Fold:
Amino acid sequence: MSFLVNDGGHHDGVRGSKKAKTFNHLFSLCTGGSLLLFLLLFSSVGVVQAADPCLVSVSPSSQTVNASTRFSVSLECVPQQPVKAFELKISFNPTLVRADSVAEGDFFTGYTTFFNPGQIDNTAGRIINIYNLIVGPGNVTSPGGLITINFTAKTYSGSSSLSLYDVRLTNETGYLEIQVTSGAVTITGGGLLLRRIP
Structure:
């Protein structure tokens, strides 16, 4: 497998060759089990230009649920180029909703994957370090779900955004251009959330 390394505009044969060999060697080690290292190293790879960006969105984009009930959202991807890996984070209002679990979606169905459901922080209202990677050769060009997140609405009424951030998709040569659409949930039938006036 070959990778194009962005070396800051230097294209001399010796330097570029050494960096490419080092990156390829590290990727071969990462596919054996250390995906996080691979994703960190990928930050040195350039963005692959495309006519249309890949679309990543929360589905449904909005929904209304009763207080104290469970609900789920899926993060969907419509790729405009082949996708091999992704990473993302999501934030929410922890006063109104609680994140319960993150499950792998069907986007990479048929491939061996290295999936990390991330770390849920219901105090800060975020889930970080969610990622997935096809192990070995292969990529995906068909739309599908990256992940499913299961939430529980708390006892207050109100609206919470479900905001995607630090979303990245990659193929074998670099990051892909993306367009991200976040979502929201409205909780009804609960108590009023009183705010202190300073």
Summary: The chain is about 15% helix and 45% strand. Residues 48 and 176 are 5 Å apart (CA to CA). Residues 13-30 form the longest helix (18 residues). Confidence is low (pLDDT under 50) at residues 1-37, 39-44.
